[in-house]
Structures are given as structure tokens and as C-alpha cells.
Write a structure and sequence with these properties.
Layout lengths: L2 H19 L3 E8 L3 E7 L3 E8 L2 E8 L7 E2 H8 L7 H8 L5 H10 L1 H7 L5 H17 L1
Antiparallel strand pairs: 1-2, 2-3, 3-4, 4-5
Helix pairs in contact: 1-4, 2-6
Length: about 140
């Protein structure tokens, strides 16, 4: 199965109904034979990017009010669920936790208003700083 076909299958299985409910429409599709495929969606508040990068499916969010700059939903999960009392290895394990697509979509659906607020025009600059800091912590400890 090609990357594009696998991505379309996952989109239809997990994201299509939620996208309809959130008024997200597809504005771009891209496919390469060797590397993967992507589907981009948007509404008036956020943009989503569903990617298949050599078989790894992920969901990312960007503001609809700024240039595209996508952040993976797992990092946004860590931002909305801070574990300030955890330090060291335990905290790093949470920051590096992989979440399957089904649970990413469930999280998006359950926390949509909070996510949209984070990426709103008035909060995006600070959200971007906080996500960058979490990203650095994830990769560099």
C-alpha cells in the first residue's frame, strides 16, 4: 500500500467525521513515492496537517492566523497537561510519549476549544514560545 493510500485510509477511519464536525476542510494534499504523503485542513481558527512520513502517521496543528508553523499534537498534549512536579527521567518519558492517531484525534476533539484558543491571534506568540521551550526540553533534556 502506498503512503498516500495508507494516509487516506487513516484519515477516513479517524479524522474525517471530526473534521466535518469542526468545520475543517482540506486545502492541500501532497504525495511522494519515496517519502510520504500529507493532507492539510483548515477552518477559521486552526490548520491541521496529517502526515505519513515513511509509515509514521502524525497529526500537527498550526494557527490559521499566521504563517504555517505546525506543532505535533503530542507536544500540545504535554503543554495542556503540565507535569510540573515531575523532573528528570520521568518528565522526559512523558514529553517523549508517542500517542497513536486514534488517541490524537480523540484529544483534538475533547480539547478543541483549548487548542483553538492557544492558536488564536492574541495568544499564538506566547503559545509558540511555550511549545518551542517544551520541544527543546523534549530533545535536549
Amino acid at each position: 500500500m502506498e503512503f498516500k493510500d495508507q494516509l487516506e485510509e487513516k484519515y477516513n477511519e479517524y479524522l474525517a467525521d471530526v473534521a466535518r464536525d469542526l468545520d475543517l476542510s482540506i486545502y492541500e494534499k501532497y504525495n511522494t513515492i519515496n517519502h510520504g504523503a500529507l493532507i492539510k485542513l483548515e477552518n477559521s481558527q486552526i490548520r491541521l496537517q496529517l502526515t505519513n512520513d515513511r509509515g509514521l502517521i502524525s497529526l500537527e496543528v498550526s494557527s490559521a492566523h499566521a504563517e504555517e508553523d505546525f506543532y505535533d499534537l503530542e507536544l500540545i498534549f504535554a503543554l495542556l497537561n503540565p507535569e510540573k512536579s515531575l523532573v528528570g527521567l520521568k518528565r522526559k518519558q512523558i514529553l517523549n510519549n508517542r500517542v497513536n492517531l486514534e488517541n490524537q484525534v480523540l484529544f483534538l476533539q475533547a480539547k478543541y476549544q483549548e487548542i483553538a484558543s492557544l492558536f488564536s491571534d492574541s495568544k499564538y506568540r506566547i503559545t509558540k514560545q511555550r511549545l518551542s521551550k517544551l520541544g527543546e526540553e523534549r530533545f535536549f533534556g
